[in-house]
Amino acid sequence: MNDMRPIEMQHWFTIGRLSDIPRRGARQVILPRGPIAVFRTQTDEVYAIEDRCPHKGGPLSQGIVHDGAVTCPLHNWVIDLQTGNAMGADQGCVRTYRTRTDENGLVSVSLAGPAG
Ligand code: FES
Question: What's the predicted TM-score (pTM) here?
Answer without folding.
Answer: 0.88
